[in-house]
Every structure is written in structure tokens, then in C-alpha cells.
Amino acid sequence: MEPPAHLAWYYQGDGKKLLEEIYAERNIHPMLCSIIGPEGAGWFAKPIEKLDDFDGLRIRFAGIGGKVLEKLGASVTMVPGGEIYQALERKTIDATEFSQPAVDKMLGLDQIIKNYIMPGWHQTLTTSHLLVNKDVWDKLAPESRALIEMGCESATLKGFAESEWAQPTALRDYQKQGVKAQVLPEPVLRELQRSPTRCSTRWPPRTRCSSAY
Q: Can you give the pTM of this predicted structure?
């Protein structure tokens, strides 16, 4: 789901209830406290025109998306956020993903690479949660719990609105600086989507994936 659908499911559907059920096993009371939209697909030394362009690419990529790119022949590595600029500058990697356009701008990635590719096929949204020890939470007065919940709701909705405003603003700035924004060709997107990845999750949160592209 993208953010609007996720928020509707969380607040009006079963999302909030399911989240609380999962964390109750660890004596934790969780609250959604932030959400932002899709990331970019990343910054690439050369444009991506076809699926074969991923073959041999040295790229910083996280999560399940990285597993998919490995199956396409990419050399995937996890460079810490604070070291991405230097890795691109020294040409130890050819490409990287990190976050949304406005967040990437804070890292100065546009100063080194001028090919910015969208959409973030690998991550349609990012959420953050406030986690509170359930025993402590249950001892709080109802009005205190209500204030905390209201604060998280406000942070989530206002933060999402700010994020949606910041992305096109950042893209306009990129354009002025000579950055070429590219949308992945439809056939490439469909093939990335088709790549079968089987994953199982367990506690503590980590994901094990295998893919047979």
C-alpha cells in the first residue's frame, strides 16, 4: 500500500489492532508516529534503459530490493548513510538509493551524480513507531495516554503533508541544478515486480529472503 491507503487501513481498518496484537507478545504498546511516501529508485552513474543495465552494477541498496537486484547480476552493498557521498565520490559504487528526493538532497548526492531515477519500486512507504513498555503504558492516566496518541497522530499526518510538499520542491531544485530525472521504463518495472522473492519474518525483526528470478 501507498501512504493514503496505509493510513486508512491503520486508523479505520484493522491495522492499529493488528500492530498492537503483534507487539503485545513482547509487552510493548506501539503507536504509528510517522509515515512518508515512496523513495526514489536512486542515483545512477548511467541511466537505466533495460533490465540488463543492472548486471555488474555496483550499487548501495537495502532490504528485499537489494536481493532482487543481486539476482539481476548487481553487486549490492550496504554503505552507511553518512558514507554514501564519499563512496560515490571515490567511485567505489556506481549507484545508490537512500530515501526521498528531499532527504537525498540533505546528503548532497546531486553534487556527484546527475541521473536520478524514480519510482521507488522497492519501498512504497516508510513508517516509524513509538514503542512504550506496556506495563508503563497501562499505569498512565487515560488523559495522558490520549495526549500521547494525539501527538503521534498529529506528527504522522502533519509530517506526511510536509513530506508530500517537500518532494516536488526538491525535484524542481534538482532540475535547476542540471539533474536529469528519469522514470524507469515500464517493461523494467514490470520485470522487477515479477521477480519472485520468498521471505519469512521472525522476532526480533529481520527478514530472510530467497529469490529464484
A: 0.78
